[in-house]
Amino acid sequence: MHAIVLYSIVPVRADAREGAEQETQLLFGELCEVLDEQPRWYKVRNEADGEEGYVDSKMLTPMTDEEYATYAAAMAASTARVMQPMTYAVSMNNGQTIPLTMGTRLADYHDGQFSVLGVMFRIDSAAVAEKPLALNQQTLMQVTRFLLNTPYLWGGKNALGLDCSGLTQTVMSLFGIKLPRNAGQQVKCGREVTSLNEAQAGDLVFFDHADPDAEGTLPHNSAGDTRITHVGLLLDQERVIHCSGRVKIERISERGIYGQEQQLFTHHLAAIRRMDV
Fold first, then answer.
1. Which residues contact 176 (CB under 8 A, 6 or more apart)?
2. 11-49 pLDDT tens trace
3. C-alpha distances out from residue 152 to 12, 166, 169, Å
4. Fewer CB near the terminus (10 Å): N or C of the chain?
5. Element (H or E) spanning 25, and its range?
6. What secondary structure, in 3-state letters, does 63-94 show?
7. For the segment 198-219, what is each residue's pLDDT rounded down to a tens digit?
C-alpha cells in the first residue's frame, strides 16, 4: 500500500510510539510505501530518499493503486519546489490554507497553481522555484539567508527546526541535487575534492569525531568513513553554513570549523564532496 502526506510536516519516529525519537520528517505531498501496519502506526519508506520509520497512521492518507500511479508520475515529472522558508497554499476546493516549508515539491505546478489528488491549490509564484536554481555563491546565499538562526532539531528538515543533514538535503534539492537523508550517506555521494584550495561554493564538507586541534591533512578515501557525524555547505573557501545549535555561518580551514563563540575549532574536517548537478 502507498500513502501520501497531506499535512505540512509529519514526524517519522524510530519506533511505533509517541515518545520515540524523531528520525526525520515527511513534507506535504511526499509519497511513502507502507511496509507494515500496527495499531495506530504505519512503518513506512519515504519514496523521496528511502528513509524508513514509523508514522502515526492518522497523519497519512492511503492511496488507491490508480491514485498512486497518477500522482507518482506527476511528481516524477515535477521540478517545482517551495524555495522560501515558509509560504502558504490555499485550497481552491474549500479555501483552507496549508503552510508549506522550503523544499516541498509541487506536482502539476503552473503559474501559481498546483494539484494534489485532483484538488487545485493556489500559491504565491514568488515563493516557488519552478526549475532547479543555478548553483553558485549568490544563489546559495539567497536561499540560505532566511534559514540563519533556525534552531537545531534532531530529524528536522523544515524552516522551524533543522538538523545538519536536513539543512543540506533541503537546500541542495532546490538546485536539482537529490541527497540521501543522513550525513553518513551523503558523504558517499558526488566526487572527492582533495583540499579547500580546490573547493567552491556548494561543495559539501563533512566532519568526524577526530580532534580538530590535532595537526594533519584532509584524509583521502573518506567517503566510506562511517564516523562522519556532521555536514555543512561551503559558501566559499573560508566560510561554511551549517546547523550546530542553530543554522550559522562560521570560518573553516583545513583543520575544520572555527567556532567564533567558543574561540576554538569545534569540528574536524574529514571530507569535501562535490555534487554534480
1. 79, 131, 132, 133, 277
2. 999 999 999 999 999 999 999 999 999 999 999 999 999
3. 17, 10, 15
4. C
5. strand 22-27
6. ECHHHHHHHHHHHHHCCCEECCCEEEEEECCC
7. 999 999 999 998 877 665 445 5
Q: How far apart are CA 256 and CA 110, in angstroms?
A: 43
The domain defined by 2-68 carries CATH number 2.30.30.40: yes
- pTM for this one? 0.93
Question: What is the CA angle 219-221-223, rounded to 5?
Answer: 105
CATH class of 137-274: alpha beta
Determine contact, residues 82/29, Cβ cutoff 8 Å. Answer: no
Instruction: Please choose, from the candidates 250, 215, 201, 28, the residue with its C-alpha nearest in 3D space to the C-alpha of residue 266.
Output: 250
